[in-house]
Design brief:
The complex is a heterodimer of chains A (414) and B (257). Chain A has 414 residues and is of the alpha/beta class. Chain A is 17% helix and 40% strand. Chain A is built from 7 helices and 21 strands. The N and C termini of chain A lie far apart (56 Å). The two termini of chain B are 34 Å apart. The chains are: A alpha/beta (414), B alpha/beta (257). Bound molecules: adenosine-5'-diphosphate (ADP) and magnesium ion. Residues 19-20, 24, 42, 44-50, 60 of chain B line the site of adenosine-5'-diphosphate. The site of adenosine-5'-diphosphate (ADP) has 12 residues of chain B, from helix 1.
Chain lengths: 414, 257
């Protein structure tokens, strides 16, 4: 029988052979976890006063909610197994012999993207796993939001939170998932989250990710996705916060005619460092993928985007497109961006593009010539640059919250 | 219209300007009073657009000498956005596309900037919507263009109409129209000209820049100036346009010689 303890045990065993990356590794050249990770950590966060819910403004009104507070699942499951097989809740410390419980637990840490130092750190600390399970041919109309909120004790050790989510959509089912990552400014915090997603044949997932961590947070997030044939994934990644933040998204297309779409915005200001590493592995015929990544950097912010596309030998008649566009708003902001294509099949369409630009002088002048002040003009242009990805987000309240956030934040950082 | 004793809006004296160190304007003199419509004609490359960019403060153009007074004050003491808020408007020869910014947001932002400057109340979305509904017929614009990104995917004629819509909303004291007629078919030309004619009053003035006489059949200027090689070489009334049309700009060079 699989239990949380047995999974933890596996994590600890694996960790025994692993070291944090040193920076020698190609994909870790801009971050050196071995030198950078906090040596002393705690799992005790700032206790909350009763009725205090600083995450409240970030809850999506139209969604079902699940909540991690300081790394602990603290929400009774909003929907239970009873609702015709749909499950939104947790796998917890009390193991069950229920076949579904065991099957889901057996999927944890099976995705290769979770089998690295950070994935096993998360596994070794496993307490509960947030689960969204949608049975065959069911569609949930309401979005499911999983929100992680953390606050470290002032002057305390670095708070280490490691939320873990498992999303399983059975054949022909459909759901919308929103993951929101928040933390308080000021005190040091390390978020090391893992989300594993399995989409069976013909399943469809819309997945919105909003990272608005606090100014002292080190944010690592692994999103590991496995798609069966004819399934569709739409990922919307908004990386806005944190001090140092890195998201890894790995997609494995496990059958023919699978469709993967990613669109994202990285927004960096002050001395933020934001990384996004994506891998889309198209291993079967008629697979498609599209990725549009926007990056806006101001002040001394540094952005890194690596988008790897692998087209295996059997993946004939696939179509993969990737475009990354960066707007550098200040002379000291910096981007490292590079597509990486590994194509083994011959009958494929693969396109990629990279642009890096500054605020356009003629666009600015046009706005000035209409009486709009330079800071407002720069804000409007930055907002317009981001709009293409923000307007794609399928949940109106999330979209308008992001638009408001952008309107407010693009005013500074020049 | 020429109005007796009307105040001077714009006085340009011996203006010289250069681009990337190359002198383009070589001593321009021109004065425009409230109520008047002036046209500047001249061959391509003579400096007409440069004059419009210098007056509105484009950073690529460097003023090297002379002075410009707008409503009695030094125009160059104002930043570009301040000039606009003080009532200087340029309808661009090539209007700029701004992806991701909706035309109505852009229009409202510029309108409110001007309102604030005048000490008048700014309009919220709803009230501004009403104002737009009132102004759209001036250029016969389809409201669908309001929710699209500024000028993005607009045809040449739609872009020019959008410029005149902005003029209608901002109600400038000095409107400079740079080749607003170029690339327009007869219908669009009629719409744009009617728009401009509706917007001219005894209080404001208009500087039309054009290469062709065609526009001047729709908008009747009080004065026509000919610009050549960075200077105004000839000033006359509207009949000058017909001479130019009949005889071409070369005729001027011959008379120079
Ligand atoms: N931004 C610029 N950079 C370089 N040269 C310019 C620029 N703008 C205008 N010029 C030059 O200045 C001269 C006058 O141009 P312009 O004012 O556009 O003439 P017109 O509008 O009368 O056709 C031309 O020789 C043109 O090449
Ligand atoms: Mg010109």
């Amino acid at each position: 029988m699989i239990t949380m303890a047995s999974l933890q045990q596996r994590g600890r065993e694996q960790l025994a052979h692993l070291q944090p990356p040193t920076g020698q590794e190609e994909e870790w050249q801009y971050l050196r976890p071995a030198q950078m990770l906090p040596s002393v950590t705690t799992t005790e966060g700032q206790p909350l006063a009763p009725h205090d819910a600083p995450w409240q403004p970030h809850l999506i009104p139209e969604a079902h909610h699940g909540l991690w507070v300081n790394g602990r699942w603290c929400c009774p499951s909003a929907l239970g197994l009873e609702q015709s097989g749909l499950w939104f809740g947790t796998l917890g410390p009390h193991p069950s012999e229920d076949p579904l419980w065991q099957r889901l637990a057996g999927m944890i840490s099976q995705h290769p993207a979770t089998q690295d130092y950070f994935g096993y750190c998360n596994l070794a600390a496993l307490g509960e796993v947030a689960v969204l399970y949608v049975p065959k041919n069911r569609a949930i109309a309401q979005p499911i939001q999983i929100l992680s909120y953390a606050a470290a004790k002032p002057q305390g050790d670095c708070l280490w939170v490691q939320p873990r989510c498992l999303v399983v959509l059975e054949a022909g089912s459909r759901a919308t998932l929103v993951e929101t990552w928040l933390s308080e400014d000021g005190a040091p915090l390390w978020h090391n989250g893992v989300t594993e997603i399995y989409l069976d044949d013909g399943a469809h997932l819309d997945h919105v990710m909003v990272q608005q961590e606090g100014s002292h947070t080190l944010h690592f997030q692994t999103t590991a996705l496995s798609q069966a044939s004819h399934s569709a994934y739409r990922g919307y990644g908004m990386a806005l916060g944190g001090h140092i933040a890195r998201q890894t998204i790995q997609v494995q297309q496990g059958g023919p005619a699978t469709d993967t779409a990613l669109s994202g915005l990285i927004y960096g200001a002050a001395d933020q460092h934001q990384e996004l590493y994506t891998t889309i592995d198209l291993g079967h015929p008629h697979g498609t993928s599209r990725h549009l990544q926007k990056v806006i950097l101001g002040d001394r912010a540094h952005g890194v985007f690596r988008g790897k596309i692998q087209v295996g030998q059997r993946a004939q008649e696939t179509n993969a497109a990737q475009l990354s566009r960066t707007l550098l708003r200040s002379p000291k902001s910096r981007i490292d961006t590079q597509p990486q294509l590994e194509i083994l099949a011959d009958n494929v369409k693969c396109s990629h593009g990279v642009t890096v630009s500054q605020l356009d002088a003629d666009e600015l002048f046009y706005l000035l010539s209409r009486g709009i002040d330079p800071p407002a003009a720069a804000r409007l242009l930055s907002y317009g640059f981001a709009a293409e990805v923000v307007t794609q987000i399928p949940i109106p309240s999330v979209r308008s919250a992001l638009e408001a956030w952008l309107m407010q934040h693009t005013a500074s950082g020049l | 219209m020429i109005v007796a004793d009307s105040p001077e809006v714009l006085v340009i004296s011996d203006l010289t300007a250069s681009v990337e160190g190359v002198p383009i304007l070589k001593g321009v003199n021109l004065s425009i009073k409230a109520g008047e419509i002036h046209a500047i004609m001249g061959p391509n490359g003579s400096g007409k657009s440069t004059l419009s960019k210098v007056l509105t403060g484009h950073p690529d153009y460097e003023v090297t000498g002379g002075a410009v007074h707008y409503l009695g004050a030094d125009l160059f003491a104002l930043e570009p956005a301040e000039r606009a808020r003080a009532g200087v408007f340029l309808a661009f020869q090539y209007p700029i596309e701004i992806p991701g910014v909706s035309n109505s947001d852009f229009l409202r932002l510029s309108y409110n900037a001007r309102q604030k400057h005048r000490g008048l109340p700014e309009l919220d979305l709803l009230d501004f919507g009403d104002l737009l509904q009132e102004k759209l017929p001036i250029v016969e614009m389809n409201p669908a263009f309001l929710s699209r990104s500024v000028n993005e995917g607009f045809s040449g004629g739609e872009k020019k109409r959008n410029e005149i819509l902005q003029m209608a909303i901002l109600e400038p004291t000095l409107a400079i129209l740079d080749e607003t007629d170029s690339g327009l078919d007869i219908d669009a030309l009629r719409i744009v000209s009617q728009g401009v004619n509706q917007l001219t009053t005894p209080e404001n003035c208009c500087l039309l820049i054009t290469h062709y006489q065609r526009l001047l059949q729709y908008i009747i200027p009080d004065y026509i100036h000919v610009m050549a090689e960075g200077k105004i070489t000839l000033t006359g009334d509207r009949t000058l346009a017909e001479d130019l049309e009949a005889r071409g700009y070369d005729w001027l060079r011959e008379t120079d010689a």
